[in-house]
Structure formats: C-alpha cells, structure tokens
Amino acid sequence: QVQLVESGGGLVxxxxxxxxxxxxxxxxFSSRAMGWFRRAPGKDREFVATIAPYGGRPGYEESVKxxxxxxxxxxxxTVYLQMNNLKPEDTAVYYCAxxxxxxxxxxxxxxxxxxxxxQVTVSS
Length: 124
Description:
- With about 120 residues, the chain is an all-beta fold.
- It contains no helices and 11 strands.
- Strands 2, 4, 5, 6, 9, 10 and 11 form a 7-stranded mixed β-sheet that branches.
C-alpha cells in the first residue's frame, strides 16, 4: 500500500529555517502531483504547497509565498518543503499528500494518500 513518511520537523526560533522531507513508497511517484498541508492547533487543515510530477507548476498558499519552496526528487521518491523565515503562525503539524493524478491542486479532496505528519514549532 501507499506509504508517505514525513521527517525534518522540530523546534526553531522565528526567522529560522527547516526542511521537511516526505519519502513515498507503494505508488508510481513520478506520475503523481504531491502536496503539503498543515493543521495548526484549533484550526482546520490547510493547503501549503503543491507540485506537478516533474517539478513544474508549483503552487503556494498566500502566506508562505516567498518563504517556502516545494521540490521533489523522483529518483528518490521524495518531496521536500524548504521553509525559510519561519514565523510563530507557521506552527502546525505538516502533512505530505499524494494526489490522485498528475494535476497539482490545493483542495485536500484531490489527494488520496496522506502521511502521519511532522510537528513544526516556531518560537517567538
């Protein structure tokens, strides 16, 4: 079955950086768009970033544009989220997700496989 395993979360001060990784197995990784979502305490899960199968068409939630970069390495079946200039409001559990198809999307309904999440905490 499909497995998505996130890593790279942790505690960082405001202004710092983290790089999240998501290792995928059990799917044809290079044929799927991938995405990152997050859920902050007391809030609904929200879209963060998405990327097409061959690295094109990246899309971002407005508040992370210019600070976060999504990328992927199809040879390693891994998608990344580079997060710079982190802010306390970025504190959340971050989830990796595999889309049903090749089209990048911000709607969670477009994704059918999810990781367990990795905690990111940004202190002020």
